[in-house]
Amino acid sequence: MARRVAIIGGGSSGLCAIKACLDEGLEPVCFERSRDIGGLWRFEEQPEEGRASIYRSVIINTSKEMMCFSDFPIPDDFPNYMHHSKIMEYFRMYARRFDLLRHIRFGTRVCRVSKRPDFAATGRWEVVTESEGKQESAVFDAVLVCTGHHTDAHLPLHAFPGIEKFKGRYLHSRDYKDPQDFKDKRVVVIGIGNSGSDLAVEISQTAKQVFLSTRRGAWILNRVGQQGYPIDIVFTTRLKALLKQLLTSSMASDFTERQLNMRFDHAHYGLKPKHRVFDQHPTVNDDLPNRIISGRVRVKPNVQEFTETSAIFEDGTREDIDAVIFATGYSFSFPFLEDYVKVVENQVSLYKYVFPVDLEKPTLAFIGYVQPLGAIMPISELQCRWATRVFKGLSTLPPRHDMEADIKHKKEEMAKYVASRRHTIQVDYIPYMDELACQLGVKPNLPLLFLTDPPLALEVLLGPCTPYQYRLRGPGAWRGARAAILTQRQRVVQPLQTRHVEENTSVSVLPLLRKLAVEQKTTLYFTTSLALLLVLQGW
Ligand code: FAD
Ligand code: NAP
């Protein structure tokens, strides 16, 4: 009989968890407390208790080729950066394509997960659920926790003296839906993460004045990168990751900060932080400088104190205000788990952010509890592919002390980010994906690819490190992966071509042929050198 896996949560992580179980011949039962799939990405005016909440206008800041599931490219005509409604459309297509819905029990909340008395021998769990006021209990061979980490608002009121006296309205960004309520108001937004900057921009269209308060400033990235390509398509390449390894971190930061300052000088705009660009989770906002230069958003330091009607900032300035929005981030916890995993100040000890190290059997895994410099969906998917292989005993975890050493090392690495509760589960996209891929045996073998399939190898190295790269070989290999990689740039450009434009075709034949001949020689030389370099680098 197939082993049964309980999946808690039917958001994007839960969906790919169901698919990974099915691919491995396991029997998934997914419990979703709300009435539908999508988790955070399903916008509702008043989302159910215990589900993450987004605003009406939210547009994702990871582009479609970088955020898709690895064997299901997002349709050609979908925009690169999708509105939440389009993201839901994609998730529904995915669920339909792989027939996932019949494995989900909607309206069912998991309230307790505990070890069975025979756990040391069987690794089994008892899962207690509640649906329409009725509790049920069932036994599972393994559990995948997919409840997300952007549900519980972090509202640090204690850090803001006087807020209890403030007569205006205050709320967390989680409860913000649209700018209507702030028309003609003077509003302070606290925090310059992606929520704070999105909200400041949106509210400033109709508010009397918006103040964006930040205690340390931020480097602001654009969604639209060089030549109009999505920024993650431009930056997330294996070649750049390799160069970043070769350069000192200060050189890499100098180069990137110079580029960002070429768009607008962060010091002139009051945004320049003391820390370097790679030391903080990126804030991506194309519109913020426009709102600042037009005076609709004014950047301010941290709020020192609130009075009944105003905010006093740390530079001593005072502004009369009507409303405060705390865009101060999120906390996460696992209230349904007995003390198996402790979360303290958003820190959790999991091997590669997936497995607890102190269980007799590795039958509990956590999916999506990372904060990547990139999209979460492909990461969750690869974590699920690995976890299900571990559940089946096809992949084994190292001894406990090795796992603890890895956790310790990762905690030390985290110190490269500025100390903040938002930097506790931070991962770099390519290194982390490769790390997971090595566990599973699906990391692309670049030297071999250069020798056997140079056009593909070049795109894998120089092009964006899209999730399809992790379907080229090993368990779960997908026959469409090569074609998906070689056509990814077309899928980026296609949705933009909504009006026919004549391209410049007046290239004479002779120089073109000469150019092609030179390119061929260069490609051969380049390919061989790269294969050698990669072998030397141990790829
Ligand atoms: P969720 O989407 O939160 O889904 C968790 C599900 O679990 C929910 O459906 C919930 O109802 C269910 N659940 C919870 N507890 C229980 C229980 N006890 N029993 C049963 N069901 C339960 N990520 C990106 O990659 N790119 C982005 O651009 C991006 N933008 C974001 C924008 C905002 C405003 C926010 C807040 C986050 C953003 N994120 C982004 C991160 C986001 O968390 C992920 O994109 C994604 O939603 C994570 O999916 P998930 O399935 O892990 O969690
Ligand atoms: P976040 O990234 O955790 O940012 C929180 C902000 O609040 C930071 O600037 C932080 O400053 C500040 N802050 C926290 N506590 C504070 C305090 N006590 N005093 C002053 N400032 C404080 O949270 P978020 O912006 O809500 O983002 C959450 C996740 O959603 C991220 O993954 C983000 O990328 C994603 N997101 C994406 C989009 C999009 O795709 N369009 C939109 C919104 C959010 P410090 O840095 O100093 O701690």
UniProtKB/TrEMBL annotation:
Cited Gene3D superfamilies: FAD/NAD(P)-binding domain
Membrane topology type: Single-pass membrane protein
Descriptive protein name: Flavin-containing monooxygenase 5
Species name: Anser brachyrhynchus (Pink-footed goose)
Main localisation: endoplasmic reticulum
Subcellular location: Endoplasmic reticulum membrane; Microsome membrane
This protein's record includes keyword Nuclease: no
Its EC number(s): 1.14.13.8, 1.6.3.1
UniProt record similarity statement: Belongs to the FMO family.
Catalytic activity: trimethylamine + NADPH + O2 = trimethylamine N-oxide + NADP(+) + H2O; octan-3-one + NADPH + O2 + H(+) = pentyl propanoate + NADP(+) + H2O; sulcatone + NADPH + O2 + H(+) = 4-methylpent-3-en-1-yl acetate + NADP(+) + H2O; N,N-dimethylaniline + NADPH + O2 + H(+) = N,N-dimethylaniline N-oxide + NADP(+) + H2O
Record InterPro entries: FAD/NAD-bd_sf (IPR036188), Flavin_mOase (IPR000960), Flavin_mOase-like (IPR020946), Flavin_mOase_5 (IPR002257), FMO-like (IPR050346)
Top class in the EC scheme: oxidoreductase
